[in-house]
């Protein structure tokens, strides 16, 4: 009788530990030994599986293990450039601590040791709809001056330039200078879509964590930029009533939490929820600054 050979990965249980389903299972990405019928059931089982998964993963890696993504601090360098905010070049910089990451940003942006760095933290889409647990954007102080965005400023800004000109600026089209399109988008506000960094120029740096406390990488930030970019189609109120817009955004938010949200144009083969910088899209390189 012919015997079927088994691979190291074929030792996974034949049923999802949550519901018992045995068909179309996806294996745990770390240990390859447990199968799940859905991401939701994988999340539900994570607390029970976590310790065993960590142990089994180490057994499958005879060489020195790399720290998990939750042990890393990732600084995403966002290169300046015109465009929709979806084409910015990015670089993942990996550090052992946030202190080291911020020190690196300070050096790159040319701050002195005594200067206080400008931190932009108002990111309603990322915080309220995508539930990032933290997020800070650092921009070049020599190229950016941000006035207080009061209601009066917004009124003057919009009517002074005209709606077409305003849209051009928000979408980074036809505006002179090295705008940082992605930096502009991720700071957009929920009430009117206007960004608190509408004139962001030069290279920028982002440090943040997802709803699970894992680092925001180039992949995750690209997904966030897509989220906000598509949301801009629902502004101003004459295009879409506020109530209808909020309902649409909350549907997106629920899908994002389940890791099922994708841009209308597709994800171009990019995992929007990848928090391991060493597993990100190849065209966004990763530089490891950690010391042994």
Automatic annotation (TrEMBL):
- Species in which this protein is naturally found: Phytophthora nicotianae P1976
| Pfam families reported in the protein's UniProt record | zf-MYND
For this chain, one GO molecular function annotation is: zinc ion binding
Which SUPFAM superfamilies does the annotation name?
Answer: HIT/MYND zinc finger-like
Coiled coil (UniProt feature): none
Query: Per its record, how is this protein called by name?
Result: MYND-type domain-containing protein
Superkingdom: Eukaryota
Say if the entry is tagged with keyword Transmembrane helix.
no
Chain ranges passing through the membrane: none
**Which positions fall inside the MYND-type domain?**
16-53
Q: Report keywords, A-Z.
A: Metal-binding, Zinc, Zinc-finger
